[in-house]
Amino acid sequence: MVGTTLSQQLKNYIQTLQHDQGILDHHFDHVKALQNEENPQFVMEVISMFSHDAETGIAQLTTFLNSDVVDYGKVISFVHQLKGSSSSIGGQRMALACRELRHACDNRDKERCLEIFERLKQEYYTLRECLSVISQMERAIMANESRRRQP
To answer: Which of 98, 119, 122, 130 has a CA that sits 20 to 30 A from residue 60's CA?
Structure first.
């Protein structure tokens, strides 16, 4: 019973993130759909990989954008990776910030790049927190399922 309630709460939370806040999009539904009984931790694993990769990318971008002479080619490469990973997990607002940062890089506008990069980081922190809540709910659902199956 509790698992069903948590499952519904999780579903409602995801819908709020998608429809009301625009943090996630339909791509997260695709990730969620790949989770099954054979791989019950799939969503948590994808979230963990995304967070690790995003932290690495943001650290690299910080280094590149804070240098005296910006290597826009390297910045674009990391922005492209971040955009791909955020899009794949459904991070709609973060992916949009990546697109805007790419445009500023194309224009070689360092000030605008730094401004958008700050917004990109905020979108990442927001997304990371939301994904953390989803992971916690997934773990609680799995624990309840496990307890329910024990004799």
So the answer is: 130
